[in-house]
């Protein structure tokens, strides 16, 4: 398994209480002999840079069930307001699954083979747009090359809230050793509002339950 240098640097910043094993040769990239680090919180994306990359250097974007069907879509955009903190951006997801056809779309974010056994919780801040409206419920997925684990996230409100999901709550999570992708799904069978705008910020994996 090849991990990225930016991932290692993020672990170094996040000293904490959980032991994280690194593959041999990876520490050598930084001229180190250590093969383990301690980490309590790994920030995947805080959207504080203008480029379409996570804090770990991986891409993210929107996806549509059928790009030729204009009655359904998900349009991601980095915005300065609303956001957490006083600088940077949040991610805005404008979605529409109000279609005469079966409808689902969403957002994807690549991950650098994050070893899930080192973490207990997926944490993210969410805000439903109070004027444009927003679903109170979406589906989350964690993936590797062959498996998918899913969880229906509830509790989205018209104010910023931090939601912490135990990884064990994801159905099928036992099959995923190292996560390579995080996906948000808006589908017409799950959402409470078929059109709306959702904001995301500060996505992280945490070791504390």
Largest sheet: 6 strands, antiparallel
Number of strands: 13
Query: What class do helices, strands and sheet pairing give?
Result: mainly beta
Instruction: Count up the helices.
Output: 1
Spatial extent as radius of gyration = 17 Å
Return the CATH topology: Jelly Rolls
Chain-averaged pLDDT: 84
Which CATH architecture would you pick?
A: Sandwich
Kindly estimate the percentage of residues that lie in beta strands according to DSSP. 35-45%
- Reading the helices and strands in chain order gives HEEEEEEEEEEEEE
Runs with pLDDT <50, length 5+? 1-38
Helix content: under 10%
Question: How many domains?
Answer: 1
Textual characterization of the structure:
- The protein has a single domain (43-206), classed as Galactose-binding lectin (Jelly Rolls, Sandwich).
- The protein is built from 1 helix and 13 strands, in the order αβββββββββββββ.
- Strands 3, 5, 6, 8, 11 and 13 form a 6-stranded antiparallel β-sheet that branches.
- It has 209 residues and is mostly beta strands.
- A hairpin with a 4-residue loop joins strand 9 (137-143) and strand 10.
Topology overview:
Blueprint: H1 5-13, E1 18-21, E2 36-39, E3 41-45, E4 60-64, E5 73-79, E6 90-96, E7 104-115, E8 121-128, E9 137-143, E10 148-154, E11 161-166, E12 178-187, E13 195-206
Antiparallel strand pairs: 1-2, 3-13, 4-7, 5-6, 6-13, 7-12, 8-11, 8-13, 9-10, 9-12
